[in-house]
Design brief:
binds zinc ion; 2 domains; 23% helix; Nucleoside Triphosphate Pyrophosphohydrolase
Length: 265
């Protein structure tokens, strides 16, 4: 429970998308309070406590946000702005607010749903079915050659940024099988030594990113690029890397960890 007297932290999302924050931190006090009451359309979600302060997320009135002393920014651009613990709460808030928008009706019978006590689930008022928030697992795989080269890919719209391969886990598949399948499908390589390295919630809108490293069985084999997914993929030496994803992303963390290992060799 929140500590007595500790002011609540507010997470108002303009149009359900851009989070209004104060000066590099989640809102608290009168500004957040005012935005909460300026919004007449959605209920605030109590997310739990952060350092003893209750956290409340809500869809805020766009005009009120624009007129307030805040800056409203998409979550991706808050990576290097909010402290990591606040960014994690912001991701949870975005995930659950999105869940509110897609769970108003039962996926089984189409009946209206209502909140379920003590869970983020909804309960159908007609058939009683209780859908839970969607979490979509996706793998990230850093493919290396066993030496100092890493395979990076590029998609349209990424500018000059390159990243490691990624793909959604399919029904009936283990995460390791997904790493093998996606690597084969996207660049035509087979991999071995698949090692789990960590995971990260990714609220765009409801993924869980699961990170692996893997070694290409034959790194000199020609790449066969799936052009419906990627507009480029190639090997880079650790000494000559292009622009990489932002530092808080798991992709970048996997790359930084691999680079440290290469440097120690
Ligand atoms: Zn139903």
């Amino acid at each position: 429970m929140p500590e007595t007297g500790k002011p609540a932290r507010f997470l108002p999302f303009a149009q359900g998308r851009d989070l209004a924050i104060g000066d590099g931190t989640l809102l608290s006090g009168a500004v957040g309070d005012a935005l909460l009451f300026a919004d007449a359309t959605t209920e605030a979600l109590y997310l739990g406590d952060l350092n003893g302060a209750a956290c409340l997320a809500y869809v805020a009135d766009e005009t009120a946000v624009a007129e307030s002393d805040t800056s409203a920014t998409g979550l991706r651009n808050l990576f290097d702005v909010l402290p990591p613990d606040e960014y994690a709460v912001a991701g949870l808030a975005a995930h659950l607010l999105h869940w509110q928008t897609i769970s108003r009706f039962c996926p089984k019978c189409g009946g209206a749903t209502q909140p379920t006590a003590n869970a983020w689930a909804k309960t159908c008022t007609v058939c009683g079915y209780a859908p839970y928030p969607v979490v979509s697992p996706a793998v990230l795989m850093l493919i290396h050659d066993g030496g100092s080269r890493v395979l990076l890919s590029h998609k349209a719209g990424w500018g000059d940024r390159w990243s490691i391969l990624a793909g959604f886990v399919e029904p009936g598949e283990t995460m390791e099988e997904c790493v093998e399948r996606e690597t084969r499908e996207e660049v035509g390589l087979s991999v071995t030594e698949i090692v789990y390295r960590g995971s990260q919630p990714w609220a765009f809108p409801h993924q869980l990113m699961i990170g692996f490293t893997a070694r290409a069985t034959d790194p000199d084999a020609p790449l066969t690029i799936d052009e419906t997914e990627l507009d480029g993929a190639k090997w880079f030496d650790a000494n000559a890397l292009p622009n990489l994803p932002g530092k808080l992303s798991l992709s970048r963390q996997l790359l930084d960890e691999w680079l440290r290992k290469i440097a120690e060799k």
